[in-house]
Design brief:
NAD(P)-bd_dom_sf, globular, lyase, NAD, Rossmann fold, alpha/beta, dTDP-glucose 4,6-dehydratase activity, two-stranded parallel ribbon, 340 residues
């Protein structure tokens, strides 16, 4: 792909940071946007930005578009809420943006039980704001984050994009399903390409502290019991961050499928792992046994995830390469370095 200017929302987030870094290393220009909310430790978010050459004192300045950093003028950062109906259109109007990669969202299934309004603001109003800005500024392609959570507790595995996803079991999942419907409407009405990516349990270095990989590692190191829900009778299609990034970057390039402007793809490892086996991999990487607190199923959680990734493979030659043992070791190495 020739050099482009790409707006990456959620640039201080786990996936957004890694995607931004890879785009910069490929020679593209990135306009990173994030509101740096306090859903989890903001120090981790600022540390990610520092890896992109954006120092904390720069990142804390709202609407700052002129930054000096290690990637020169190819990396800009703006602290902004996605749902800001004045600032976001102004950002689009004042920059020549080729492609939008919308990875910003209020994440977390369990947190949606505690603070539903945060999901309406970011995932619904914010996403509509992105769609409107794309329409008004003639953006030709929008790649956005959906989630495997839209499949709910489906027993039909592996999960296929053609499956019925009308029965989400968390508000988070419902907002992601809504994003897909909204994108379909805008592709149909206004003729620009939308590509939704249903992420499957992403993990790896710089991962979110509220996710299982981080929680388990931290608890085991500090001799605390880990919470094992549904008595361990869960399986997840754990997908290493590098494999996710390769898929996202591919969809940001020129697409080979011209049959439809609206597209949805699963992006996962396509090799589900039992939760207890995942814990064993962490124990082996740490050389330390976990103390397990066996608990019932949590509200809003699902029993299994399993991605059928044939569509993404066929269109973009997507091929996940990292097994859980390698991925867990990479995370633990990063964790030990970052937390000293």
């Amino acid at each position: 792909m020739e050099s482009k200017t790409i707006l990456v929302t959620g640039a201080a987030g786990f996936i957004g940071f890694h995607v931004s870094k890879q785009l910069l290393e490929l020679g593209h220009s990135v306009i990173g946007l994030d509101n740096i909310n306090d859903y989890y430790d903001v120090d981790l978010k600022y540390a990610r930005l520092a890896e992109l050459g954006i120092q904390r004192n720069q990142a804390e300045k709202e609407l700052n578009l002129t930054l000096s950093n290690s990637f020169g003028e190819r990396m800009q950062f703006i602290k902004m809420n996605l749902e800001d109906r004045e600032a976001l259109p102004s950002l689009f109007e004042s920059n020549s943006i080729d492609i939008v990669c919308n990875l910003a969202a209020q994440a977390g299934v369990r947190y949606s039980l505690e603070n539903p309004n945060a999901y309406a603001d970011s995932n619904l109003i914010g996403f509509l704001n992105i769609l409107e800005c794309c329409r008004q500024n003639k953006i030709k392609r929008l790649v956005y984050a959906s989630s495997s959570s839209v499949y709910g507790n489906s027993d039909e595995v592996p999960f296929k994009e053609t499956a019925n996803v009308d029965h989400p079991i968390s508000l988070y999942a419902a907002t992601k399903k809504a994003n897909e419907l909204m994108a379909h409407t805008y592709s149909h009405l206004y003729g620009f390409e939308t590509i939704g990516l249903r992420f499957f349990t992403v993990y790896g270095p710089w991962g979110r502290p509220d996710m299982a990989m981080h929680l388990f590692t931290d608890a085991i190191i500090n001799d605390r019991p880990i919470k094992v829900f549904n008595n361990g009778e869960l399986s997840r299609d754990f997908t290493f961050i590098d494999d996710i990034v390769s898929g996202v970057i591919a969809t940001l390039s020129e697409t080979s499928d011209r049959s439809s402007l609206y597209k949805l793809y699963n992006i996962g490892n396509s090799k589900p792992v039992k939760l207890l086996d995942y814990i064993i991999a962490i124990e082996e990487a740490l050389n330390k046994k976990a103390k397990k607190e066996m608990l019932p199923m949590q509200a809003g959680d699902v029993k299994q995830t399993y991605a059928d990734v044939k569509a993404l493979q066929n269109q973009y030659k997507y091929m996940p390469r990292t097994n859980v043992k390698e991925g867990v070791e990479a995370f633990v190495n990063w964790y030990n370095t970052y937390y000293n």
